[in-house]
Amino acid sequence: MIFNTNLNAIATYQAGKPIEEVIRVYGIDAKNIIKLASNENPYGCSPLVSQAICANASKVSLYPDDSMVDLKEALAKKYNLNAEHFIIGAGSDQIIEFCIRAKCQQDSKILMAKTTFAMYEIYAKQSGCQIIKTKSDMHNLKEFKELYRMHHPDIIFLCVPNNPLGECLDFSEVHDFLKEIDKNTLVVLDGAYQEYATYRDVNKAILVDVVQEFENVVYLKTFSKIYGLGGMRLGYGIASEMIMEYLYKIRPPFNVSSLSLLCGIEALKDENFIQKSLEQNAIEMQKYEIFAQENKIKYIESFTNFITFFLENQKCKSSEIAEFLMQNGVIIRDLKSYGLNAIRITIGTLEQNLKVFSLLKEKIS
Ligand SMILES: *Cc1c(COP(=O)(O)O)cnc(C)c1O
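Above: query sequence and pyridoxal-5'-phosphate SMILES. Below: predicted holo C-alpha cells.
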C-alpha cells in the first residue's frame, strides 16, 4: 500500500519510556521506578486539581464546552489580554501542529535550531515542509538571521528555553530579532519552560505584549511541565486575532477533554504550588551542577527543570549509562537520537536525585 510519501522521511517519535514498560521489561517493582525522562513536575500537581477530577468524575459522558470559555477567561485574566487571543490544545504539541498546518504547504520552509524540540520537525515533515536548521546546536540568532534572509521561511521556531539542551535566549535578544522579521513569517515562541527560566533570570521572561506588538508571533505555553498536568494533555497558544482566525480553522471540535479544561482552571488558582515547585527545582538543580563540576562532566546552564550532561570525556557512552540507570529503575533520556553523546535528566525530588547521583557515580570516571 502506498501511504502519504511525506511520512517516509519521519522516524516515529520515541517518547520517554513509561513506568509500565520498565516494570514489564526489567521486572522492577513499580515503587522502585523513578521517571526523569519527560520533564514532568516531580511534586505532582496541585491538590485542587485532584479534587476537581474526583468532584467531576460523573460528568464525563458529555462532550466538553467547545468554546472553552472558562479556561480562556482564566487565562485572559492571568495575562491581562482578551480571551480572543487564546487557543487551547491537547498539549501545546497540538498548537505546534495547528501552526504548521495553518501556515505551510508542500515544500514550505521551516527554520529551527539544530538541536531542539523534536515535534517541530515531525509535524513539519508530515506537511511535506523543508526543514532548515542552524549549524549551532544551541539557538544562535545571528545564524537564524542569515538563514532567514537566505530562505525566507514560512515559520521560525524559537524554543525559549530550549529542550533538550536547556539554554535560553534573553527576551531582549528575541525582541530585537522579531523586529527584523517580515510579517509574512510566523514566529513561534515555545515557552514550555518559561516559569523555570523566569525564576532563574528575569531577563529570560517573554513579555506577553509581544503578541500585540508583533502580529506574526505565536507564544506557546503548556500545563504539562510545572503545572504537573502531563497526563491531562493541555496547552495553549497566545497570538493576534489574525493568527487565531486561521488556527481555529484547523482545530477539530472538542479537541480537549472536559476534565482537562477543569484541571487547567484549578491549576491556575494555585500560585503557591508553582512557587514551591520553582524553589525546590532551583535547590535540586544546583546539586546537579555541583555533581557535574565535581565529576568533570560538561553541562550547559539550564533554565528549565532538566539538565543535560555531555559525556565526551567519560568512559561510558550515553546509551550505556541510560541502560544502566534503567536496569536500576531510573528512566532518563538518552540524546543519542539527536546525534549527541549526552543524557538529559529531569530534576527530581531530593530522594530521587540522590539515587541518580549514586548510580551515575558508579559509571562515571
Ligand atoms: C513538553 C514540551 C512541549 C509540549 O508539551 P505538551 O505536553 O504537548 O503540552 C512543547 N515544547 C517543548 C519544548 C516541550 O519540552
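The two ends are 51 Å apart (CA to CA).
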